[in-house]
Amino acid sequence: MPMVAAVKRFIANERGAAVVEMALVAPVLAGLAFVSVNLWEATLRQQQEDEALRVASQYYFNGGSDDSKARLLGLAAWRNRPEDGDIQITRLYRCGESAATATTLCGTEQTPPATIVKIVASATVEGAAFQEEQIRSEMVRVR
After folding, report:
1. 8 A C-beta contact, residue 52 and residue 77
2. With b meaning 16 or more CB within 10 Å and e meaning fewer, what string describes 17-32?
3. Which domain holds residue 97?
């Protein structure tokens, strides 16, 4: 009988229960905090890259036409730009649904082709737990 009483006392004893619960929950909370910080950092970098694209495309919306100037404006606006962060600008020409060249005239109206500027920002983003290549792009139709 003394053995049964000792087992009952052991089961009824709640000292240290909070420590055991904390030991089980603490790693999960620490992991969630770590992942949250990394996701926040990646989102922040992505927003900064998007802002650089917006500045470059806004240059064209305001009537600009110099691709190298648009690139420099975008790079200057890119806060906390990673070391390999870059912006590339290419021009595409379209006659309706088909590709064209800058000197092509479209259709029977002999109108110039639509000019589309493709702005691509790319960078390798490094976090505490990841390394990811981010590529963001925007297309702007210019005259």
Report:
1. yes
2. eeeeeeeeeeeeeeee
3. 2-142
Cα 104 versus chain centre, distance: 37
pTM of the complete model = 0.73
Rounded to the nearest angstrom, the gap between the alpha carbon of residue 67 and the centroid of all alpha carbons in its chain is: 23
- Which helix (H) or strand (E) is 4 found in, with range? helix 2-12
Residue-wise pLDDT for 30-47, tens only, equals 999 988 888 888 888 889
Beta-carbon contacts of 74 under 8 Å, excluding residues fewer than 6 positions away, are 52, 53, 55, 56, 59, 87, 119, 121
Number of independent structural domains in the chain: 1
For residue 135, the surrounding DSSP H or E stretch is: strand 131-142
